[in-house]
Amino acid sequence: MFGQLPSTLQNSGDLVMLDLSGNHFSGSVLTWIGDKLSSLVILSLRSNNFDGHIPHKICDLQFLQNLDLGHNNISGVIPKCFRNLLTGNIPDNIGNMELMESLDLSMNRLNGEIPPSFSNLNFLNHFNVSYNNLTGQIPISTQL
Fold it and tell me: Residues 100, 119, 111, CA angle at the centre, nearest 5°?
């Protein structure tokens, strides 16, 4: 599927899981998701062509347990309501985001090592992973 998210989804207020991953949707992640789909527990928009920022209205999804926006063109800050509650490992392929200038993953529940691909982030000028459970060495590069 392609284009913007269908507005008819706004009529699905009792929807618990919405997985639209692996399509060609584009445009911004729409703010009405937080208003109209208030029962969502799982929202996966992974591997599309979304751009812009994560709308703060996503914070209104009180039951949301799993949010996957990976492999899109989303930029900007992560809404404070997440209190950056990220868990798991930093993805091994994070170094593919070669133009990234700033990354703050502090105060989360990240574990494992900082991937070696971080050495590919030549434009990175701000990097903070404090207050996590990371282990191992910081990869060697000109920026880190």
Answer: 85
